[in-house]
Amino acid sequence: MPKPSPAKLKVDEILQVCIVVNDVQKTVESFWNILGVGPWTIFEFGSPLRIPDLMYYGKPAYGKYKGALLQCGPIELELFETIEGASVYQDWINQHGESLHHLKFFSEDVDKTEKILNDMGFPTIVTGHFGAGLKNRFAYFDIPPLRCVWETSNRKGTPPPGAVSYPEDPKAVSPSRVKIPGIKQVGIVVKDAISTAENYWNILGIGPWEIREWGNHVLWDRTYMGRPGWAKERLAHAYLGDLELELVQPVEGESVYQDWIDQHGEGLHHLKFLCDDIDEVSRVLNEGGFPSIQSGHFGDPKEKAGGFNYIDIPPLHCIFEPVHKPKTLPVPPIARVPAD
């Protein structure tokens, strides 16, 4: 058994991943039509109607937003669009474009959690109360050692009043030829997988982590931007229930991970879903106009080995990674956090 984490906060479940977008309606329609993800709950949020005490970088603020939610396997998928006013979502879009924005964990006492993070040097970005009797509260924090914006809230379920569904017909069937069963992994690209894993263990108590070397020595036929590719990576994995958190460190060679760091810096990179036939799923998405940006096969060929494919899907404002997982990973860990 690993030694206990020294973290004052212990996060054992990631509730939500959020994508910030310019048009929620178009994005939910794209998710429905491309990956069969739905139905969505769409709602309006903001001040003063829903959040009478909205605070933005420590000052009272005004902001209106449109959001969308659904449960996608072990994690809630959220979309947010800024209508007007102060917005961490629009700030992100202005700097990085429409893309993955934050992860959320549950807190019984948001005030206490906020104080712990503030005392550690991570100031609150935006916060406010909402819901019946204003008993619910949320707060966002940029936590640089974790290479991610994190939200905490004491809300579980219960979308705001006045929410509507898309599609409206509860019996509607998506026309998508690919229908994902749920998001199974959130990937973060980093410059140092081991030190970032240590930060997660020490700040949020997330772990233990297994560290592996990855690259062409494991893959049969790695491709990069549609041509043969060569590279090495270091991967770190931790499980929070059925959801896997992955840290990917590019070591050398051409990769979508290094591309992302060069263009955006370290941070949230992709969402993974599992499939039974990686080649067929890739073919369908390619035919839909979404080509592979990096792929490969791995594992024991005798047991229909595994494979992965990173596919940038612009209408969804996210890179998705379909994966056919083999019975066992082809390489053992080289290290663990915390150390054995």
What this model shows, in words?
The protein is α+β, with helices and mostly antiparallel strands and 340 residues long. Helices cover 18% and strands 41% of the residues. The strands form 2 sheets. The protein has an 11-stranded mixed beta sheet. An 11-stranded mixed beta sheet has the order 15-14-19-20-21-18-12-17-16-13-22. A hairpin with a 4-residue loop joins strand 9 and strand 10 (148-153). The longest helix has 11 residues, at 24-34. It starts with 15 loop residues before the first strand and ends with a strand.
Task: Break the fold down into its secondary structure elements and pairings.
Blueprint: E1 16-20, H1 24-34, E2 40-46, E3 55-56, E4 59-60, E5 63-72, E6 75-85, H2 88-96, E7 99-106, H3 110-119, E8 124-130, E9 136-143, E10 148-153, E11 164-166, E12 185-189, H4 193-203, E13 209-215, E14 223-224, E15 227-228, E16 231-240, E17 243-253, H5 256-264, E18 267-274, H6 278-287, E19 292-298, E20 306-313, E21 318-324, E22 335-337
Parallel strand pairs: 1-6, 7-10, 12-17, 18-21
Antiparallel strand pairs: 1-7, 2-5, 2-11, 3-4, 3-8, 5-6, 8-9, 9-10, 12-18, 13-16, 13-22, 14-15, 14-19, 16-17, 19-20, 20-21
